[in-house]
Amino acid sequence: MIKLGLTGSIGMGKSTTAAMFAARGVPVYDADAAVHAAYAAGGEAVAPLEWAFGHVIAEHGGVDRAALRERVVGDAEMMRKLESIIHPIVARAQRSFLETAEADGAELVLLDIPLLFETGGDRRVDAVVVVSAPPEVQRARVLSRPGMTESAFEAILAKQTPDAIKRRRADFVINTGYGRAYAEAQVDQLLTALRPRWRAPEACEDTCEKSSSTRRRPAWIRRKAIASSKSGASSL
Question: From the CA atom positions of the chain, what is the Rg in Å?
Fold first, then answer.
């Protein structure tokens, strides 16, 4: 089973691109959705977070994200404590997804992980797909969101691996700057390129053990798309 890791900075169209893969029958794991489920009423993270931070449960029974944010923002120790609770929960959700997909006979899956590079997740997939768009398109998309400000946007960017570095480290780049139809064509091209390998037992036989310093791709992986510099607005 081929595991594709999908990532991209804020405003690049990653969620829309993930939906394109799902519409084509590819099982998709959504890391953000896993976190939301863990924070919801009855979620696995609710009790541990209340125990660790106190007074972070909202009236609906789930985690009060605003209250939690107040306790961790700007405090490295508190952030590490939060991550020590959330990361294992999300990792278990991902393992469960992969086990189910494999049992169902899936030949290819997509792992939608916003902080793929930042958390080392790129070392645990067979290939990385980065969703990208020109900076001016990204900025226009993000600032059009309700409540978003320039300062908030810049703060988010500061926590993410720069887009240029993501593209350099990617095996495939989906450019959403030309709009939906162009992005969908790139997704189709990527799937067409991978399809002959889904059933090939030799496809991943040369994948090495992954480490923090070296990650060698299967020989059949080749970069199929390069982000363009088009500045036009996108409908994504």
Answer: 19
Tokens of 23: 């519409």
pLDDT at 9: 94
Helix (H, G, I), strand (E, B) or coil at 172: strand
Average pLDDT value for residue range 73-97: 91
Phi, psi dihedral angles at 111 (to 5 degrees): -105, 105
Long-range pairs for 140-146: beta carbons < 8 A, 24 or more residues apart: 140/233, 141/11, 141/13, 141/234, 141/236, 142/10, 142/11
What's the confidence (pLDDT) of residue 222?
A: 45
* Contacts (Cβ under 8 Å, ≥6 apart) of 65: 39
Exposed/middle/buried for 213, CB within 10 Å: 0-12, 13-18, 19+? exposed
- Of the candidates 59, 64, 56, 116, which has an alpha carbon nearest to the alpha carbon of residue 90? 116
Domain ranges of the chain: 1-27+107-236, 31-105
Helical residues (DSSP H) of 113-210, grouped into ranges: 135-143, 150-159, 163-169, 180-194
| Under 8 Å between Cβ of 125 and 4 | yes
64-73, 127-136, 202-211: range with highest mean pLDDT? 127-136
Q: What is the pLDDT of residue 208?
A: 31
What pLDDT is recorded for position 182? 94
CATH of region 1-27+107-236, choose from 3.40.50.300, 3.30.750.24, 3.30.70.260, 1.10.10.10: 3.40.50.300
